[in-house]
Amino acid sequence: MKRRSLVKAALAGAGTLAAPAYLRAQSNKKLSILTWNIADQQELFKTEFAEFKAANPGVEIEWLDKKGPDLPAFYQTQIVAGTPPDIVDLQGAIWVDYAANGGLVDLTPYLQKEPDVAKRFNPDYLSGWVYQGKTYLLPFYVAKTLLYYNKTMFKEAGLAGPPQSFGELVGFAGKMAKAEKTGFLTLNFDWLYWPLFKMNGVELLSPDGKKAAFNTPPAIDALAELAKATASGGINKISWTGRWVEPNGAFASGTVGMLHAHSASYFFVKGQGPWINDQTLGAAEAPGFWATPTNHGFAISKGSKNPDLAWSFIKYMTSDKCASAFFKTRSVLTANTAADSEGLAALEKTEPLAAAVLRTQTAHTDKLTGNWPLPYDAELKDAFWPEIQNAALGRKDAKTALTDAERAVNRLLARKKA
């Protein structure tokens, strides 16, 4: 079954199976929290959980952590069993499936009752958790795409600084392509490549979301340029065939001029690239300041027996104090503006290059793209991406590929609107 079908089945079946006896016998003040591959935060969470329990006598907290590929399936299994974790850390657009199918608690009433909670967050990141006018998550940690560039390769090619337009990006990539060297790489999952289209004025869907809007002359021209640059070696083919390890590893090798990726890539690349320091690596916004976010947020499961207590818990976990502590231990942005400001000021003294990378995550957050709140996001990717890949790798010309993608996307939209 497709993930979308599994979500529907899981939510439809919620409560149909009796909870195990040991769970029914537990205190009604127990909270369970499921997080996404952050087991390394055990010591911090141990301290924070203890503090929350001290402020809420009698509360028990169960923490579960799963790796990225395992969490969605585990969460759905728990929903079907009638034992969903009270709080779940969701990433990307997966949350929209659950929100659209009634699987998450609407946090809007809580935020209206306690407006100071909303004020702690960057409003652009917070608004990324809104579906049909309702807020379903609070930011846990956030990231958006930026442009890394190899200063050494730029200097060798006679380039003074990062590109300021799509044309310059492609042109710079070509100037750095020589022998085993290529000029540009992008991550391609979760719409992370979409800024390449957005900087050309391309929209994915019409304003009402009822039909494809991307099959336009600017989109055809942009895709044709990407394909041409890929064929000539300006753009590394791993941009269209890799996912995470391959493109980041290629950039870390020191043979690629630019990498379009989110801030999490920095720590992966730095760990593999001995050449990387503040004199050799630059961090800049992509042309037009467009970026695609890939954020984590805390949601409350609709099946929670203690939604008010769960709200108190995620409110605590995203407080200035906890967000600041998480920034320090993980070096990630939290969207809590006070915590991030404090963390960046400290990081600039100890690791200025990392601070420069993370600074890009706090600027131009009004230019986020590729984060449409669509409950059929995964299916939309499946309909659109293969044709982009076909064109970029020279299997089809850009016009034909976009026409075929348009046909596939419109079929999908017709089914969803029927």
Q: What is the element layout, followed by pairings?
A:
Blueprint: H1 3-13, H2 21-24, E1 30-36, H3 42-55, E2 60-66, H4 71-80, E3 87-91, H5 94-100, H6 108-113, H7 115-119, H8 123-127, E4 130-131, E5 134-135, E6 138-141, E7 145-150, H9 151-156, H10 166-176, E8 182-186, H11 195-198, H12 217-232, H13 238-241, H14 245-252, E9 256-262, H15 264-272, E10 281-284, E11 296-300, H16 307-317, H17 320-330, H18 337-350, H19 352-359, H20 377-392, H21 398-417
Helix pairs in contact: 1-4, 10-12, 14-15, 17-18, 18-19, 20-21
Could you please describe the fold and organization of this structure?
- This protein is α/β, with parallel strands linked by helices and 418 residues long.
- The chain folds into two domains: 3-143 and 294-361, Periplasmic binding protein-like II (D-Maltodextrin-Binding Protein, domain 2), CATH 3.40.190; 145-292 and 376-417, Periplasmic binding protein-like II (D-Maltodextrin-Binding Protein, domain 2, 3-Layer(aba) Sandwich), CATH 3.40.190.
- It is built from 21 helices and eleven strands.
- The chain has helices spanning 3-13, 21-24, 42-55, 71-80, 94-100, 108-113, 115-119, 123-127, 151-156, 166-176, 195-198, 217-232, 238-241, 245-252, 264-272, 307-317, 320-330, 337-350, 352-359, 377-392, 398-417, and strands at 30-36, 60-66, 87-91, 130-131, 134-135, 138-141, 145-150, 182-186, 256-262, 281-284, 296-300.
- The strands form three sheets. It has a five-stranded mixed sheet with strand order 2-1-3-11-6, sandwiched between helices.
- A hairpin with a 2-residue loop joins strand 4 and strand 5 (134-135).
- Helix 14 crosses helix 15 and helix 17 runs parallel beside helix 18 (337-350).
- The protein is globular and about 65 Å long.
